[in-house]
Amino acid sequence: MQSPSGEPHTSLRSVFVTANNQRHKLDSIPDSSSAAYQESLRSASTAFHECRQLTDRLAIFSPNETEDDISSGDLQYLLINHFLGELILKDCITDRKTVLQQARAAYERYLKILDQYDMLSKVDSNLYQRYLSERDDFSLLSTSDPTARRNTKVTRYKQEQELKLKLDYLARVPLALQNDDAASREIYLAEIQLCTHNTFHALDIINQEIKIISLMPLASPAPQPEELAQDYRQRNGIPKDDYSDRLDPPISQLLGNGKAGPLLSKDGKPLRPFTLLDSRQRLHDGVFKQDHALPTMTMDEYLEEERRRGGIIDGGSGQQDRTQPVDEDDLEKADMETMKAREWDEYVEANPKGSGNTLNRG
Fold it and tell me: pLDDT tens, 57-93?
């Protein structure tokens, strides 16, 4: 729906162009956590908020209309909430959970307008209905089957690449054709399809991040400046008069921290740690004893233990080299010793000393 005078539309168009330029300007700032980036981000967000207020004030989009009722020049304003959701997610200063909730609200408003105009494809419409039924648990990969999850990822990646190629091709249309209303309408519709694809992906990521934040432990409140200025002993209830440079605490402090008093309560529950001893004699023996370790076995027991472990070898080289005398009455044994001596003499005569090493002689 357009205003009869046309002036409000001119103002909306200029604000939208300014907001879009500021959004593209963020790509030239490499550090997203820098002050310049966050300042440009706030300016772009403020401009898109102003665009959304103008569209609501002018009633450009109405639930009683259809897609054909929207002029080609007004189709680009359908993307205001999507761009606003993208910018909100880049905020690094505000509380993260608040950022996620605001971005999700912007994406939901974007999808709601497209659904009212019946501009969602069959696949996107089914995803939107599933999102409405399971808003907090929505996920693009709803199954636990690894094969199905992989196929879903591959399919959505191919769809995204096709939409990008289509939009890139239409953006390269000559300037003469861009002035054509039908060509401009096709470009805007292609951009809406790509942004819708990215919106469901962003909602999936938002739900995952919200679940992770909900599992994080709550941060303890920051101490006040006056608490930080107080002395450690004052914050822990230690009087200044009892301060000492000793590393170990005094006995009085140990006794005051529950080290004295009864061991058991009236119900039989232990009130403080204690050690069980078998008798008073054991305690006495542990105090009145020698200041050195006493032997636990005799020398004979030690040698027997070493022999059992293999630390002592019986016998020696003298016993091994000792030769037994030959019995002269044993003729067979005497003959064997004689033949052995003859063979050794023949070997020595045939192989004089030094005859083997002839290669290294000078």
Answer: 888 888 888 888 888 888 888 989 999 999 998 888 7
Q: Are 23 and 88 in contact (CB under 8 A)?
A: no
Q: Are 153 and 141 in contact (CB under 8 A)?
A: yes
Cβ pair 140, 152 in contact under 8 A: yes
Check: CB of residue 91 under 8 Å from CB of residue 46.
Answer: no
Task: Compute the CA torsion angle 233, 239, 242, 243 (nearest 10 deg).
Answer: 20
Place of tokens 């259809």: 66
Q: Is the dihedral of CA 166, 169, 171, 176 positive or negative?
A: negative
What CA–CA distance (Å, rounded) separates 90 from 43? 13
| Closest CA relative to residue 83, chosen from 115, 32, 40, 45 | 45
Q: Is the distance from CB of 84 to CB of 50 less than 8 angstroms?
A: no
What pLDDT sits at residue 223? 61
pLDDT over 50 (residue 51) = yes
Instruction: Please tell me the pTM assigned to this model.
Output: 0.55
Rounded Cα gap, residues 44 and 19, in angstroms: 5
pLDDT, greater one: 7 or 104: 104
Q: How far apart are CA 360 and CA 161, in angstroms?
A: 82
Find the angle CA(346)-CA(350)-CA(354) to the nearest 5 degrees.
125
